[in-house]
Amino acid sequence: MTPLSSVPPSMRMKDWFVLTFLSSLWGSSFFFIEIIIRDIPTITLVAIRLILSAVILYLILLISGKNLRLDKSLVVAFFVMGLLNSILPYSLIAWGQHYVSSGMSATLIASTPLLTVIAAHYLTPDEKATANKIIGVIVGFLGVAIMLKDQFSVDDSELLIGKIAMIIAASCYASGAIYSKKVSKYGMSPIETATGQMAAGAILLTPFALVIDQPWLLPTPSLDTVLAMLGLVLLSSVLAYILFFKLMKTAGVTNLILVAFLIPVSSIILGVLFLNENFTLAHALGMLFIGVSLTIIDGRALKFLRKAH
């Protein structure tokens, strides 16, 4: 039995609504990236995303009458979060999407909750795995596997490389979420944390973009690319991370990271509607499993069934 003090926070209905909205914001990032990579190289894409996000977040911070604290321990934390939550996963996803579809990318990223539940159980004092959470995550992971059941072939080495990139990105997100939980002890507001993370990521990556891609030599991007970049920055980065850090305080990291199970749904729908990707029976069945997994993890549906009997 897990001591009461180590039980993860319960999700309120408001939290589930925010979680679902957050999944649509992050799900759309795969759609935006699919468009942007046609014109902009991976490192430059990620650097632009981080720079613009950091500038916008900092302006919002200033307008709200606050400033960014920069003592030594916080600066180190920002750089670690910038690496784990931004540079590595953003770069791996953008690079991997040269080889796999946006829908498959989002589906592979959905392995994040399983990795996070395991890591959080051992690395945090108040996010121990419960029976509901373990069963729910396994059911959700089965849903992800069903979505990918026709795509496990390793005959295509480039496709395999793309898949591996997404799994590593999921591991980065899981590690980053656990580390971000530890950083919450500093008492920063969600917008402070998001600003620091994005700014640190921009500082680390921009020199590499300048040296490797020489972006000033690239052709002028199309209007679609510019609009996709704005969507990626404003919706999938700025707004998404403000909600992410805000929700972490009320829902806990293992509950919050369940957003990864919902991301494939919005990503696949966008891919079908705008990128001519196929929607299959496996996708529908996988989404059903994911829905069931979330109700198990939430626990309210099981309590209702017990009372009904």
Automatic annotation (TrEMBL):
Signal peptide: none annotated. It is a multi-pass membrane protein. InterPro entries: AA-Vitamin_Transporters, EamA_dom, EmrE-like. The keyword Membrane applies. The chain crosses the membrane at residues 16-37, 43-62, 74-93, 99-123, 130-148, 160-179, 191-212, 224-244, 256-275, 281-297. Residues 18-148, 161-297 form the EamA domain. SUPFAM superfamilies: Multidrug resistance efflux transporter EmrE (SSF103481). Pfam families: EamA. It comes from the Bacteria. It is found in: Membrane. Keywords: Membrane, Transmembrane, Transmembrane helix. This is DMT family transporter.
